[in-house]
Amino acid sequence: MDFNGSDTLPGPRTEDHLPHTAQAAVKIVIVGGFGVGKTTMVGSVSEIRPLTTEETMTQAGIGVDDDYGSESKTATTVAMDFGRISITEKLVLYLFGTPGQERFWFLWNGLFEGALGAVVLVDTRRLEVSFDVMGRLEEGGVPFVVAVNSFPDAPRYPIEELRTALDLSPDIPIIDCDVRRRASSKDVLMTLMGFLHSLAMSGALT
After folding, report:
1. Residue 71 CB: number of other CB atoms within 10 A?
2. Cα separation of 91 and 189, whole Å?
3. What is the rounded distance in angstroms from the CA atom of residue 88 to the CA atom of residue 130?
4. 28 touches 86 (CB < 8 A)
5. pLDDT band for position 24 (50/70/90)?
6. Which of 33, 37, 125, 167 has the fewest C-beta atoms under 10 angstroms from its C-beta?
7. pLDDT of amino acid 21
């Protein structure tokens, strides 16, 4: 999803240093297939200027990378995206967006290390690319929520139909979102934090 037209914070973004009130910092990963909006989400919600590792897409990727949407997409993440958001005065989230192309998935293990939770971004036009993503998180023991990014031409399905199609357990939250909008992206992160809190209270999160 193109970052153009996305929300930006009014005025200059904050300096890179942590707020003096911060008492806890949590690592969160934003994952999903190629072109689902990971870079856009990090960019729209980050309170600091986001770090991106986008490179121009070239002919060399033809036949190697997932080319869905490449008619409008000119750059792609090759390492990670990074941003930060203060959820409260005391709690700060560090956001790490993963590369979507399968040939860069070897980087995921390092990005998953130390992560408390994850957001899986889903494009309903390509649900099948989400299975490997969720499988890798489950293998790594990283709890996640699913956020369905609202592309204009993407079909809409009831949440329970998506849950069945994605073979998700009833306890994993699914939320609709528009990652271009800061409030929507923040809602996704708040849903994840609520889910992690419930897991911690039940003893399922160690």
Report:
1. 7
2. 12
3. 31
4. no
5. confident
6. 167
7. 73
